[in-house]
Amino acid sequence: MNYKRQFVNLSTLIILFLLSALPMMAQKEAEAKTVLEKTTQAFKKAGGIEADFTLTPYQHGVAQTPVKGSIQLMDENFRLTTPQMVTWFNGKTQWTYLPVNEEVNVSTPTREELESINPLAFLTLYKEGYNYRMGAQSTYKGKSVYEVTLTAEDFNRQWANLTLYINRTTLLPLYIKLKEAGKDYHIITIDNYRQGMGWKKSHFTFDPKQYPDAEVIDLR
Asked: Which of 49, 128, 147, 218 has its Cα between 20 and 30 A from that of 102?
């Protein structure tokens, strides 16, 4: 009888604990949404942002060769440059130039394809298909940060889980961890930002005159 009473008491305590945690969880979700919205607004107000980044893939927890690159963003447009490729996206059409074989692939990317290419895709990811909450990380490389975690509702998404460290002062991300459904993940560190670039729309569109020897392959 005593064991039964102890079990009932323990069950009651667990239920009370979970119920008391619900408002805290809701608060953390609201705080995370506020931070993500402020970050999105910071990008919009910047008038065009250029960022240098380092992307390090991890396979089974082992770091692979890092890739350095830069990304230029304005509204829904971006231009991504790495030693392996240059990608332009004007909000509808994507061009990917591969210097190794002098080839340009033209496509209309899906949401998942954009997520896999743009390291700052989380600016729109949180609005659909992801749950988010605040984490415990408070500093990164000596800077005060918010930690925000996004978890996909559908694990078939390109990224099952994202962890962001967002500078509390500038509201711009400094660190992004992109985890796939398995054990592999990528870590992106943002080295610096330049704001107020004010590009024209044509900056995010492939110009064949700049690449006269490239073969254009239309995949649309």
From this structure: 49
